[in-house]
Design brief:
The protein is built from six helices and seven strands; from the N terminus they run βαβαβαβαβαββα. It has two domains: 7-107, Formyl transferase, N-terminal domain (Rossmann fold, 3-Layer(aba) Sandwich); 116-140 and 156-193, no CATH class. It has helices spanning 21-30, 53-57, 70-83, 100-105, 126-132, 168-191, and strands at residues 10-16, 37-44, 61-64, 88-91, 110-114, 137-144, 154-161. Helix 4 links the parallel strand 4 and strand 5 (110-114). The radius of gyration is 16 Å and the shape is globular. A seven-stranded mixed beta sheet has the order 3-2-1-4-5-6-7, covered by helices on one side. It has 193 residues and is of the alpha/beta class.
Length: 193
């Protein structure tokens, strides 16, 4: 990633599908002086996504794209990103797998946060799988997005201990709290490389 030129913040789009708690954490981070990014666009594939309210609250442009036709949706998104001069994409609970073509256009500029210690438990139902597997630890990972699911270069990880009586719900809550901390750290890290 390029060094920051002067004080100009990197225009960033955050992609969400659900509650948007990581989006909120990134917005709060973007308002700090040390933050290299500004959140300029929120993209969702779900018109009922609770996270869209942050667009209204923080006056950030938001767009909804339905993925009935994936290629068409991606082309529209790419046009929107170009129009808004977006240089960085953060997936924050975005439940879609984007195409090779999409990744190619933003190679090395798409980050994702995943609720496990990758390479373990790629994909969905990570907490249930970690508990079922009798893991002592789980956690979260911020990584670059590449063409393989949850397989891009790891930027940062945070371990969370799994207690004996842990449920997927209690584990999810503990891990989410850590996600909110490490996503901003990962963003800082890639811009200081």
């Amino acid at each position: 990633m390029a060094q920051l030129n002067g004080f100009k913040k990197i225009k960033t789009a955050v992609f969400i599908s659900g509650n948007g708690s990581n989006l909120k954490s990134l917005i709060n981070f973007s308002k700090k002086k040390i933050s290299p990014i500004s959140i300029n666009l929120i993209i969702s594939d779900n018109s009922n996504s609770k996270g869209l309210k942050y667009g209204k609250i923080y006056k950030i442009k938001k767009k909804i794209f339905h993925f009935k036709d994936k290629k068409l949706a991606e082309n529209k998104i790419l046009k929107e990103l170009k129009k808004d001069n977006i240089d960085l994409i953060c997936f924050a609970g975005f439940m879609r797998i984007v195409s090779q073509n999409f990744i190619q256009k933003y190679r090395g500029k798409i980050l994702n946060i995943h609720p496990s210690l990758l390479p373990k438990f790629k994909g969905l139902n990570t907490h249930e799988r970690a508990i079922k597997n009798k893991e002592k630890y789980s956690g979260c990972t911020v990584h670059f997005v590449n063409s393989k699911l949850d397989s891009g270069k790891i930027i940062i990880q945070k371990k969370v201990r799994i207690k004996k009586n842990e449920t997927s719900k209690t584990l999810a809550k503990k891990i989410l709290a850590q996600e909110h901390k490490i996503y901003p750290k990962a963003v800082l890290k890639i811009f200081s490389l």
